[in-house]
Every structure is written in structure tokens, then in C-alpha cells.
């Protein structure tokens, strides 16, 4: 098999020889290290789908850490290996690090201190990774991929398979409930929370956005989606709820319920959150609000249904920036439900 790379990656002698002799039917055990929270785990799903397509006979183990148990893709792997970050016993830690045995292929999709140690101690036939510090290529990997902040994370992960000549499906397949534009409810969902408070607009700003959108887009239901944390409630929106009949609250949903709910909605308005990544995974239209995170890493461009609101100078987008962007997106995707039609 040819190594489909020129100057965009790292190959040592072992990696090049392995690629030249690769027969997918001979790969029996694969380990994928991915230690990440909800959103990035969603972005991992297309890689696992395509990994299964490329190596249909392989047993796939996903390795993660105990703090990241939410949204694990159990449906896409054969086993899950968990490093317990609370393990105090040296013997216990060592046993966890050696529990993966000797896989044929190891992918490190994490680039953390723990993932690097696990990669170093796991005697796989070939190891692939994308470390931010290239010095780790020679130390740890046989095949290294350049990692970009300017392309959607889920697509970047697929570069590991493209180097083997694999042709991923587009639009990407997440194996999640799928949005159908023609049957979507006239429902705009807002998720005004983030893991880090500074990555989200203030509650006052969100009130202004939702109220203005409810006035300009009366033909849509405007729904605030509550989160799972105690502080991710709807109390700050009480006054807007009283004043507008088309504004409501969706209480917290389980992960199993959230996928179908999002897929049946018209659009999600949100900052850089795990919920937005779930919307991307269901192909639900999104309007992303960015001012801290690099938007391009979380902005798929292979579909016409995603937009990002951000200023080149990094200023926080204002209420009108967001509502104007939302109106433009809805008019493009749902012309029959446009502002003109709603006001007639």
C-alpha cells in the first residue's frame, strides 16, 4: 500500500514499511486513545465510523480517562479502557497502563501527558499520533500527522486514515439521529452555557438575543435548553418568558433524548459547547458564537447549514450581530418560513 503523504506528515522507517505491507484483513486489534470531554468526543465519532469501514475485522478499543465518561461512543467500539485519574496505588496505575496488551495499531488522538505515557508503554506494531510538539514524533510515533486549528476537528482526525488511502464519506457520518430539513420543527434552540463561563455571553446578553429574535422571527418557537449543571437553568430568562408566548424552556434532557430532539429542531444557537458539537453530529443547522475559541476548528464547511458569528478583532459579538446572522441563516435554509412569510 502506498503512503499517501508528501510534506504534510512524519514517517519513520517502521511507519513507511508498515504502510507498504499493510493488508487491512491482517489488522486484528486497534487501540484509539482519546481523552476528551463531550464536544470533542462527538467529533471523534466519524473517525471511529471510518476506522470500522477501513478495518472491518478489527477489535477496536477506545482508551480514555475516568473524568471523561460522558458521551462515550460505546456503540462504535468493541471495548473501553479507562485510566482512573484517582488511582493512588503505583501498582494499580501500572496495571492500567499495561492493560492494553500488544495491539497491531495504536492511534493517539489526545496528545496529553497521560496519552503519551500510554503510547510509550504500549508495544504496538505501529503508532500514529499528531503531537503539537514535533519532537514527540521521533520519540513516540511511527506516523505523525500535522494538526490544524483551521479545519473542523472531526475532519482532521480522518487524516490518519487518508494517509492509508481511505476515502471518508461526506458529509461525515456520525452514526447519530439525522436532521431532515423538510420535516424539522419550526424551533430555534438556544444553549447559553459553556464549560468555562468566560466562553459564553452574559445572561443579560442572552436575554437580549432571545427577546430580539422572538420579535423578529415570530413564526418560530424560541426554546432555551437547560444544561445538566445546577447553574445551567432558565431563571435569568423569566421576564422574557412572561412577555413572549413564543419563548419557552426545555428542561434538561438525557443524552439519549437530546440527539433526537436536536435533530428535529430547525437550528441551534450556541457558543463553543458540547451541545453545539452534538448538533453538528446530527447535521442540525447551527449558528456558532465565537470570541475566544478559534472558530474554524469547530465550523464544518462541507455543509451549507452552519454559520459562525465572530469579529476579526476578537470582540464579543453583539445582539444584532447574532440576530442578523440567525435571520440570514434561516432565510437561506427555510425560505418558506422566512421573515416575510412570518409577518404576512
From TrEMBL:
Gene Ontology MF: a single term: ADP-heptose-lipopolysaccharide heptosyltransferase activity
A Pfam family that the UniProt record links to this protein: Glyco_transf_9
Keyword Transmembrane helix part of the UniProt annotation: no
Keyword entries, A-Z: Glycosyltransferase, Transferase
Cellular-component GO terms for this entry: cytosol
One GO BP annotation of this record: lipopolysaccharide core region biosynthetic process
PANTHER family linked to this entry: LIPOPOLYSACCHARIDE HEPTOSYLTRANSFERASE 1, TETRAACYLDISACCHARIDE 4'-KINASE-RELATED
Record protein name field: ADP-heptose:LPS heptosyltransferase
